[in-house]
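tl;dr need the bound structure. longer version: we got a ligand (zinc ion) that a collaborator sent over and nobodys looked at where it sits. i said id run it. heres the input, straight from their email, havent touched it
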Amino acid sequence: MSVDGKVRIVTTSWDDGDIRDLRIAELLHARSMRGTFYVPIEPFNGNPSLSKTDMRALITEGFEIGAHGIAHEIMSEVPVGKLDYIVGTCKAIHEDNLGQRIRMFCYPRGRYTGLVVQALKRAGYEGARTVRLLATDTRYSPFDLPTTTQVYPHTRVEYLRNIAKARKLGRLHDYVTRLGLGDDWVEIGKKLFDRVLHEGGIWHLWGHSWEIDQLGLWDEFAQMLDYVCRRQDVLYVNNSDLPQYVTRRPN
Ligand SMILES: [Zn+2]
């Protein structure tokens, strides 16, 4: 906590375990930033993926590995009877391979139900990340962790749709007024980071390395990181540090 009593947190998360995650880790590490890599057990889309050795090296550098299903299952579509098996197995395999407790889960495509949350709690997870955007506040459940911005050129319509799904009027108001209905992800990221500096809160950047690579976003990504790194009174953490800072369950 800083002198003014506000908590300012920066975290990042990276989905799917693609081998190009190593480039993300390099860019983060060079700026003393942290992050959680959510890796399914089976390679996503058949792409080359992080090996056990890669994941161990990431942990040694201070990053975290989180679970992302066995085969990137859309959890809301998994038969209820298989939920415990999937969330338990992907956790156990990573723990076996890495010799470390897996504390966080990320819902593939952000889809889940209350039954999925119950299964995660039974398996011993401490929290889970969604794909909701534009959040900087701390008022949500550890199993409903939103994000702030994605390394992806979303359109205005996509931002509005994402806000509508989150059913957060405050976020809609912010998007229209403070962010001026913008669609430049770096600008949105900077403005929301400035807000966290002023008001406190959590700034959470996420993305997919395969997508950053395909869309040629590495330079913009580095520019975004340069803006938020090495700031005074900001804590740079992995996702499993978030549950202790979120304060209230949503209604
Ligand atoms: Zn994914």
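gonna send this back to them w/ a short note. The chain has a mean pLDDT of 94.
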